Amino acid sequence: MENKNYTIKCPECGTDIEVSRPAIINVQNDPEYKIKVLTGELFNEKCPKCGQGLQVVSRITYHDMEKKLMIYFRPITSQEELKTFDYEAIRSAIEDNFKAPNYAIRVVTTVNELMEKIKIAEFGLNDGVIEIAKFVYFDIFTKKFDGIGVVNIYYERRDDKDALIFFCNDGKTRSIMIDPDVYASIEKRFSAVVNAIYTSRVCMVGRDWALRMIKAYSKLDSEKDSAVSVKPELKLLDSEN
Ligand SMILES: [Zn+2]
């Protein structure tokens, strides 16, 4: 495994911290690194002088040959990076460098998204369906929890069930079970687009993608609220602080 070296300054005492990271993780060759990504351990560093712990993110290409999953983690950690983030340039570079049929090729910009994509693949789910499901459940969530803002939603496996974890602005997280019928209904309704993202097209499959798809489909459709034909219910698995 080839490592890249970075030097960062400790935010506490200003000491230079040397960080050595793999640029490419091949899950079949280095299975322990999959665990390190999923636990977040890979991104945790400690200042050798003052002991301050900190999260340091770095560009990583994550390759799982068995699952035909390729994730390009290109972190955005500041406004400056957000301004200079050039998705088209990243996409065309990937297209020039990586060619294999029927892959899911993703570009993600946060550690949470990276972990989420790996978990979704782990349980054989389609990340496009999951992103659309977030909108479906967000709608009924906001009706039930009126006045509680949702900061983020991530997929998680809870008690052997697929769930969406809502991170709310009251500091709590709430886990909503994904009804398999709702999942199947989205998969059927959006089959063209959710299948297309597994044919080696480089894409960012997140909130913006899901919103575009839902809008495109509702234009095609005369009926209102056409994202899902099954009526979703709010099944709360748990609520934590
Ligand atoms: Zn320090």
What does this 3D model show about the protein?
The protein contains 8 helices and 13 strands. With 241 residues, it is an alpha/beta fold. The strands form 4 sheets. It has a 5-stranded mixed beta sheet, sandwiched between helices. Strands 9-10-11-13 form a 4-stranded antiparallel beta sheet. Strands 1-2 form a two-stranded antiparallel sheet. β6 (60-64) and β7 form a beta hairpin. α5 packs across α8 (207-220). It is globular, with a radius of gyration of 19 Å. Zinc ion (ZN) binds next to loops.
Q: Please give the domain count.
A: 2
Structural class by helix and strand composition? alpha/beta
Largest sheet: 5 strands, mixed
**Tally of helical runs:** 8
Helix content: 25-40%
Q: What coarse outline follows from CA principal-axis ratios?
A: globular
In N-to-C order, the SSE pattern is: EEEHEEEEHHEHHEEEHHEHE
* Strand arrangement in the largest pleated sheet: 3-6-7-8-12
* Integer average pLDDT: 92
Rg from alpha-carbon coordinates: 19 Å
Q: What's the total number of strands?
A: 13
Cα distance spanning the termini? 39 Å
> Which distinct ligands sit in these coordinates?
zinc ion
Strand content: 25-35%
